[in-house]
Design a protein that fits this description.
14-stranded antiparallel sheet; 3 helices
């Protein structure tokens, strides 16, 4: 089901200063309405309702992400299921250290918790992740692994360089497993939308249509586990998202957006 760590589209960064080549990356708090965009008859999903809150902040020595969502999933001939998830993470600004806590619950099932830390030995090098929950486990991270913060700033950097595609392994801590491959397709630069800009300065920025395909850590899967399409602005804000699970697609439509104050580092 929905993996909370990527529903937020990983809007987190890894540069020493919060800037991409264009405008400044903007710590922010965004509220999204969740709804069913499409569904295949064979999938059985007939309705989706919910909300997602995403907050990205600057803690001087790193970037913090807090993401919470509550979604009601309706399936044909089955009772409605409530899915609740919350993620809190911190990533160092050099992109080499990562802490994460994820809690998720589906219907009447017991709450699951995933907690741990991860470290890379250097840029482009491998490392390891130590999980303390659900049980103590260490997994190796292969060379080239990135954390979510570093990955998103890499998307923006490559978009500004007019690159259309790249692929990296990304570890987000949402599952006790090695990082999966994420293929990224970047569209052409889109100018700022004056209509969107009337909703605030955070939306008055140019951006790109981006498509992320998430493949499992093991095996040679021909198809991704799921895909995310989004409009990513050059300040790190995502104005809308489509999360495609194959059998059904969830739309995350921006409802509220505000800047998060930055500390006087």
């Amino acid at each position: 089901m929905v993996r909370a760590a990527w529903l937020l589209v990983c809007v987190t960064l890894s540069l020493p200063t919060a800037t991409a080549q264009g405008g400044a990356i903007a710590p922010h708090r965004a509220l999204y309405d969740l709804s069913l965009a499409s569904s295949r008859a064979s999938g059985g999903v007939v309705g989706v309702q919910g909300r997602m809150l995403f907050e990205w902040g600057d803690s001087c020595d790193g970037w913090t992400v807090e993401q919470r969502y509550r979604m009601f999933l309706s399936q044909a001939q089955e009772d409605e299921v409530e899915i609740v998830s919350s993620l809190a993470s911190w990533e160092s600004k050099d992109g080499l250290r990562y802490r994460f806590t994820l809690r998720k619950k589906r219907g009447d099932e017991p709450e699951e918790e995933v907690r741990g830390t991860a470290r890379l030995e250097g840029a482009g090098r491998g490392g390891y992740a130590d999980f303390t929950r659900p049980e103590e486990t260490r997994i190796d991270l292969p060379r080239g692994t990135m954390f979510p913060t570093a990955h998103t700033i890499e998307i923006i950097r490559r978009a500004e360089a007019r690159e259309a595609f790249f692929s990296r392994r990304v570890f987000d801590g949402s599952e006790v497993e090695k990082p999966g491959e994420v293929n990224t397709v970047i569209g052409r630069l889109q100018p700022a939308d004056p209509e969107a800009g009337r909703r605030g300065k955070l939306l008055d920025r140019p951006g790109w249509r981006v498509r992320l395909a998430f493949f499992p850590a093991e095996g040679q899967a021909a198809l991704p586990e799921y895909e995310i399409g989004l409009n990513l602005l050059d300040n790190g804000v995502s104005s809308d998202m489509l999360i495609d699970y194959g059998d059904f697609t969830v739309r995350a439509r921006l409802k509220e957006l505000e800047a998060v104050p930055t500390p006087g580092c």
